[in-house]
Write a structure and sequence with these properties.
The complex is a heterotrimer of chains A (109), B (294) and C (367). Chain A is α+β, with helices and mostly antiparallel strands and 109 residues long. Chain A contains three helices and six strands. Chain B folds into two domains: 93 residues, no CATH class; 186 residues. Chain B is globular, with a radius of gyration of 19 Å. Chain B has 294 residues and is of the alpha+beta class. In chain B, 45% of the residues are buried. Chain B is 30% helix and 33% strand. In chain B, strands 8, 9, 10, 11, 12, 16, 17 and 18 form an eight-stranded mixed beta sheet that branches. In chain B, strands 1, 2, 3, 4, 5, 6 and 7 form a seven-stranded mixed beta sheet that branches. Classes of the chains: A alpha+beta (109), B alpha+beta (294), C alpha/beta (367).
Chain lengths: 109, 294, 367
């Protein structure tokens, strides 16, 4: 998986995520929301890669596409407004971390 | 075969839907292959537009005579290593597959069998060892399905339609004997010691060739897995999972970027996807009947 | 000189898209085949589209497919450049994009429909070692592994050997000057770096694009010195596109001759302008040619060379090169090596290259 980041940046994965944005160089499009599915497919026009990701991950990425940079708190509030789910807040941070590891999202310093 | 007779050069433009293919070759075997498998296909005169300019030629230099070879050229350029000359006809088929998979013409090309009932298509992505070709042959020769393609499923992103591409069905090893037993089957030469083992071809049914200007939309995607004598099973897959599996079998999805992605997603939106495990051809056909008749 | 085969020539249509109007199907076959062979199928599609010409009929799939591929390659190049930033950003050196990569990122019209191969970058010579190490850390490996080829590239030419990325398979050519160290002309890369502009894009702060004049000069210099001309018509098409769009800017032609002259490249650029004018009919001011003009004797050899180039660049209709084109190509190949390498090095090198072609090393897979 391409991260677009140097070795030094890997250390940042251990710090708490406060603010995030889409990783530089990504240009993302999404599959339609298919019924009876907890996964969706995402495509990066630039690298030509695709990923199968969770619906929560897709919603987070779509928010970042619209808003640019966002704090994790604000993102959580927006997601709740759109569609509340009991353990959504708990799932959000690990979801964002895995998106960072995949190279789709980057922390904002 | 008259061995002392000077080989006549074939030079013909065949319409193999949806393409025009010019074929030039000095090999009598290639001429015979075309006569046997492509006899009802339309032929055009020299004024036609040519999508693929193909040559199947003798080996170069000493390999013309000594351990003779055959070479495949597209637009006078060679992209493969030569094969033994006995494999001139399979070389034509494999080479043409490569041409269609490689040349960008706006279509998404996937390695899959494609059959249809009316305008509803069944796609069987070609994971190796799945037994796809035997199932395809069975469906069109025994169960009345229309064959759109045995190997190359062609999706037109603009219309969302699968475009028929009737070609001889390629058979390997055990499946040759199975299909030879079918009442309507017309089997060609058997070739031994090829890189795929023992191979042959079954002619595309004439009705399928005749209907090749009618497209179809994918309604079912079935990933077959053959395990000798195992029990039958069928599992529905999510479209996301099917996307990943089909992508592995796509020849040019990456090169098609956004257009390819959108086209594949749209195709999956209107289809249901299944994985089947079967232990015999008849069991496989029953599973497909269960899926497509419900 | 007429370059038409079967009554149609891709250059004519590129110069004047209306020439494609009313072509027969077999003429379209020839046109598409010529364009594809010259790596200009996408450019042909782009020019026809820009001229508002609707191509109906079977040729449309070929043109549309090439445009789609070009679009895909543009995006892929864009991604590679982000990766380069990631690998080289903290070295704090300028990383100049050259040729195709520069056209993509600068969004100049020359990039439309263009099809790409390698990515070319220019870095300061002093940083070459650090650049190579960083690239290797990020997954690029040297594509040429024989000791001889390594020496050829490093000691004599103007690049470290091409690098390819382990996972993505893309090829990167890292230059530290624009002509080999052994060349007759000795342009100073620092001038080009100093005149280059930064990209105004977030996340790409190390990346630079040469100014329009230097883009043209580099493309011409590369063409005039290159031995392998299979992309010659495409490169000439790039030059024509650039001159037509940049030429309108005030002061462009003065700067072009000043920069070329100031960097020991007056003769190649003069020759290149003559060539593109004769093949594509590009409007070039006489005053610019006069400023760059070589003395009388060089002019004669320039005319001979121009004929040779036109012959070598002629689009091949039936794909079998006739003897004249073949000879022209071979002469140009030898000449380009002569320009790049002293004679005593040249003959052993060419002999070795011929040997390698006949007996390639094992394990080289399909072509």
């Amino acid at each position: 998986m391409e991260s677009g980041m140097g070795q030094a940046d890997a250390d940042h994965n251990c710090l708490p995520l406060t603010e995030v944005s889409l990783a530089y160089g990504r240009s993302l499009i999404f599959s339609p929301t298919w019924p009876c599915s907890d996964a969706t497919v995402l495509f990066d026009r630039n690298s030509g890669d695709y990923w199968v990701i969770s619906l929560l991950g897709a919603r987070a990425l779509k928010l970042l596409q619209t808003h640019g940079e966002m704090t994790v708190q604000e993102m959580g509030r927006q997601l709740e407004r759109e569609q509340s789910a009991a353990d959504m807040f708990a799932a959000l941070e690990p979801t964002l971390r895995s998106l960072v590891e995949t190279g789709l999202v980057q922390p904002v310093h | 075969m008259p061995s002392k007779q000077r080989s006549r050069l074939i030079d013909t433009i065949l319409h193999i839907p949806p393409f025009n293919v010019r074929v030039r070759s000095p090999f009598a075997e290639v001429a015979r292959h075309l006569d046997y498998f492509y006899t009802s296909y339309q032929r055009y005169g020299p004024d036609a537009f040519i999508d693929f300019d193909v040559q199947v030629l003798h080996g170069k230099g000493v390999r013309r005579w000594w351990r003779p070879q055959v070479r495949f050229l597209l637009d006078a350029a060679e992209s493969f290593f030569p094969l033994p000359a006995q494999q001139a006809a399979p070389m034509f088929e494999w080479g043409l597959n490569w041409c269609i998979a490689t040349r960008p013409l706006g279509y998404l090309v996937m390695h899959a069998g494609l059959l249809a009932l009316d305008d509803r298509a069944l796609m069987m992505p070609g994971i190796p060892g799945a037994g796809k070709s035997t199932l395809s042959a069975s469906l069109c020769l025994l169960e009345g399905w229309r064959l759109l393609s045995d190997e190359l499923a062609i999706l037109d992103p603009k219309s969302g339609q699968m475009l028929p591409h009737p070609r001889p069905i390629s058979l390997k090893n055990a499946s040759i004997d199975i299909v030879t037993g079918f009442p309507q089957a017309r089997i060609g030469t058997v070739y031994h010691d090829t890189r795929k083992g023992t191979i042959s071809h079954a002619a595309c049914p004439p009705d399928s060739v005749a209907a090749s200007s009618t497209g179809a939309r994918v309604r079912w995607v079935v990933f077959p897995r053959f395990e000798l004598d195992s029990a039958s099973s069928c599992e529905e897959l999510s479209r996301a999972e099917a996307f990943a599996l089909i992508s592995e079998q796509s020849f040019n999805r990456e090169r098609m970027g956004e257009v390819g992605f959108d086209a594949l997603c749209s195709m999956l939106t209107d289809a249901r996807c299944f994985q089947i495990v079967y232990g015999s051809t008849s069991a496989g056909l029953q599973l497909i009947r269960d899926i497509t008749l419900s | 000189m007429s370059l038409a085969i079967h009554g149609i020539c891709v250059i004519d249509v590129l110069r004047n898209p209306q020439a494609a109007f009313g072509l027969s199907e077999s003429q379209w076959s020839v046109l598409v085949a010529q364009a594809r062979r010259a790596n200009l199928l996408g450019a042909l599609g782009a020019r026809l589209k820009a001229a508002g010409l609707q191509v109906t009929g079977p040729a449309n799939r070929h043109l549309g497919g090439a445009l789609q591929l070009s679009e895909r390659q543009h995006r892929s190049v864009r991604w590679e450049i982000y990766q380069l930033q990631g690998a080289l950003g903290h070295l704090e050196i300028p990383v100049l994009l050259l040729k195709g990569a520069a056209y993509v990122m600068s969004e100049h019209a020359v990039g439309r429909g263009r099809l790409f191969g390698d990515i070319d970058i220019l870095v300061p010579r002093a940083a070459l070692g650090a650049v190579e190490s960083q690239l290797m850390l990020h997954g690029w490996v040297s594509a040429k592994t024989s000791a001889y080829d390594q020496r050829y590239y490093r000691e004599w030419m103007h690049e470290i050997p091409p690098m390819s990325h382990m996972r993505r398979g893309t090829v990167l050519d890292v230059h530290h000057t624009i002509l080999p160290l052994t060349s007759r002309n000795a342009p100073d890369p620092r001038q080009i770096i100093d005149r280059a502009a930064a990209l105004q894009t977030a996340g790409l702060c190390a990346i630079r694009i040469p100014c329009p004049e230097d883009l043209v000069i580099h493309s011409i210099t590369h063409l005039v010195h290159e031995g392998e001309l299979h992309n010659g018509l495409r490169d000439l098409n790039d030059i024509d596109c650039m001159l037509r769009s940049f030429g309108a800017a005030p002061g462009f032609w003065n700067r072009l001759s000043a920069y070329a002259g100031g960097n020991d490249l007056a003769w190649p650029v003069c020759f290149g302008l003559h060539l593109v004018r004769s093949v594509y009919g590009t409007p070039v001011p006489e005053s610019t040619l006069a400023e760059l003009a070589p003395n009388g004797r060089a002019q004669q050899s320039a005319r001979w060379l121009e004929t040779l180039y036109s012959l070598a660049l002629r689009p091949t209709g039936q794909f079998e090169q006739n003897i004249a084109t073949g000879l022209a190509l071979w002469l140009l190949y030898v000449r380009s090596h002569a320009l790049r390498m002293p004679m005593h090095l040249l003959v052993p090198h060419l002999a070795r290259k011929a040997w390698m072609q006949r007996f390639p090393a094992k394990g080289q897979g399909e072509k």
